[in-house]
Design brief:
By secondary structure, the protein is α/β, with parallel strands linked by helices. The chain is 53% helix and 13% strand. Helix 2 links the parallel strand 1 and strand 2 (37-42).
């Protein structure tokens, strides 16, 4: 029997991007456990092995369908969403999770990396949202969850490209929520702090640090801090379970801040005079520079 036929046609349908690892993988598992039909998309379905293994272990693999999708390919986005809507007759939730992190100080990061960062993290989110909206609007219901970050509320040295893309997602989602609320569609921001996901390993690994860079010492300090933070970060399952609660809520909030100390850090960055906040960040960087 086809795996799709094994699931109830009445199951709500969720479309998740960037589902091969990290938050995306665990969001797929959490939604499937809640009885959702999950369309797990990723650039290369050959990388779905971890998702399949985890889903089989949890007994939810029949509820998950994997599909190839590069969110930077506009035609593929439109075609894939049309195919999903035709096959399942509905899309109840979209989780815009696909993304990556470019690391490095602004002067050192090549301009093409800035374009790649925005194309995936921001324009990919916009393209997916625009493709799904007609399906949700026709039924006057649905939830769009945009995976932002604490870095979408407060920027740190060494991750300007990543923060810029997430700041853009924040502004986009605020406008989106106000436009869609009268139509019965909810737009939500999830803002995780540090969690054990591959995004930071990839981001740190992508830093192109020249031997003669004037930012070599502060970049190395940022790398040390990021690695230490990642070592003690909580499991992404916590965020995935929160997303599962959000999409079944009849009245979700605009923002959900997640992670150790994330809410306090955002509040302090808003309440403290900028000079105090600036001094705290730069002092922390200096301390990291003295460590080996």
């Amino acid at each position: 029997m086809d795996r799709r036929a094994a699931a109830s046609g009445d199951s709500p349908v969720a479309l998740v991007t960037g589902a091969s690892s990290g938050f995306g993988l665990h969001i797929c598992l959490a939604l499937a456990r809640e009885g959702w039909r999950v369309i797990a998309t990723m650039r290369n379905v050959q990388r779905s092995g971890e998702l399949e293994h985890e889903a089989r272990q949890a007994g939810v693999w029949p509820s998950i369908d994997c599909m190839p999708l590069d969110v930077t390919d506009r035609r593929a986005v439109e075609r894939t969403v049309r195919d999903i809507a035709a096959r399942y007759g509905r899309i109840d939730a979209l989780v815009n999770n696909a993304g990556f992190a470019v690391g490095g100080f602004i002067e050192d990061v090549p301009l093409e990396d800035w374009y790649r960062q925005m194309e995936t993290n921001f324009f990919g989110t916009v393209a997916m949202t625009k493709a799904v909206l007609p399906v949700m609007r026709e039924r006057r219901r649905g939830t769009i969850v945009n995976m932002s970050s604490v870095s979408g509320r407060m920027a740190f040295p060494g991750y300007a490209a990543y923060a810029s893309s997430k700041f853009a997602v924040e502004g986009f989602t605020e406008s989106l929520r106000l436009e869609l609320k009268p139509l019965g569609i909810h737009a939500v921001l999830v803002e995780p702090g540090a969690y054990k996901t591959a995004i930071w390993d990839k981001g740190l690994g992508s830093i192109r640090l020249k031997d003669d860079s004037p930012y070599r010492q502060p970049t190395e300090a940022v790398l040390r801090y990021s690695r230490r933070t990642a070592e003690t970060a909580p499991h992404p399952r916590e965020v995935a379970e929160a997303v599962a609660r959000i999409v079944r809520s009849s009245s979700p909030r605009l923002r959900y801040v997640m992670g150790k100390g994330s809410f306090a850090a955002i509040c302090l960055s808003r309440l403290l005079p900028w000079k105090w906040y600036e001094r705290a960040i730069l002092c922390a960087m200096r301390r990291q520079s003295l460590r080996k």
